[in-house]
Design goal:
Layout: H1 12-34, H2 36-53, H3 55-59, H4 90-125, H5 127-141, H6 145-156, H7 160-187, H8 190-197, H9 202-210, H10 215-238, H11 250-257, H12 266-292
């Protein structure tokens, strides 16, 4: 019984391309491994994300189960982080609130980045349209973020989906400003002028040529929007204009704990630490991504 071995031969050009791809992967790995901000932020954020998604499966505590006999129980025993004013397990509520807060922050970052990209892109390439859009953006940015969010929530009502809408409106102008500034720089590049001279359509130029060159500042800005939206959402819930009870979020857990801060300190300390660690990790990720995506950064062997 004979076996036939088929050998595939590669041309020198294919070997060179493979070697270049391998070298680019090695370079990217070296840059990531040497970027302490990116690595540390990624580790902390992964820990918080896994804790919010995986730990409740093994915890076995219902974040909505009320037990008045064990209200304000100190941390320890079955209730690792204690209980709240209704006897509910605080750890399970913080983890459930983490899922809610992280989901809101992620959706706000995605929606505001998408809307900000469209507004900033077209305002940079169309002067009259841009003048109108930027004046609207300036008007929205004139209001403090928390006050504008409270006003929108007052008009729409306390609901989780309305929190996402309100924060998207708040943060979209910031993304639009960053995208417009970057697009104005790309607009003057030689390859864009060459495409115009060759008769390329505006859609091709904007979405196939300009947008890929805007992804670096857009991704970095999205991480900062993620972190800021967590803080503003917590502030909205703290004043009673955010995620409605009994659904947990880090903000409304802090709101419930402010009335018992002296004899139930764990209700403010632990959710506050969760917010601090998550925002810190996302900001570290943003700073690390900014350094990683900066073409001026050179990594030696």
């Amino acid at each position: 019984m004979t076996s036939t071995v088929t050998k595939t031969t590669e041309t020198p050009a294919q070997l060179i391309r493979r070697a270049l791809r391998h070298e680019r992967r090695n370079l990217l790995f070296r840059r990531i491994s040497r970027n302490q901000l990116l690595v540390s932020g990624g580790v902390i954020f992964a820990f918080m994300l896994l804790a919010a998604l995986v730990v409740p499966i093994f915890l076995g505590q219902d974040p909505y189960s009320v037990d008045p006999a064990n209200r304000l129980q100190t941390p320890g025993g079955i209730h690792i982080l204690g209980t709240d004013t209704f006897g509910r397990d605080l750890l399970s509520r913080i983890l459930a609130g983490g899922r809610s807060s992280l989901l809101i922050g992620c959706l706000v970052a995605v929606f505001s980045s998408a809307l900000g990209l469209v507004l900033g892109l077209y305002s940079a390439f169309y002067r009259r349209t841009g003048a109108i859009l930027m004046r609207i953006v300036d008007g929205l940015m004139a209001f403090p973020a928390i006050l504008l969010a409270i006003a929108i929530m007052a008009a729409l009502g306390a609901k989780t989906s309305n929190v996402i809408v309100a924060l998207t409106v708040v943060f979209t102008p910031h993304v639009a400003r960053v995208v417009r500034a970057a697009a104005l720089v790309v607009k003057t590049q030689t390859y864009v002028e060459a495409l115009n001279a060759l008769g390329a359509g505006p859609t091709r130029i904007l979405w196939l040529t300009v947008v890929p060159n805007l992804m670096s500042p857009l991704v970095v800005q999205a991480t900062f929007i993620f972190a800021d939206s967590l803080i503003v959402e917590a502030a909205l819930s703290f004043v009673g204009a955010g995620v409605p009870a009994p659904a947990p979020s880090w903000g409304n857990i802090l709101y419930e704990g402010k009335t018992v801060i002296y004899n139930g300190w764990w209700m403010t300390v632990f959710p506050g630490l969760a917010i601090m660690l998550t925002v810190l990790s996302i900001n570290l990720l943003g700073d690390g991504l900014r350094d990683l995506l900066d073409p001026r950064q050179v990594v030696t062997r």
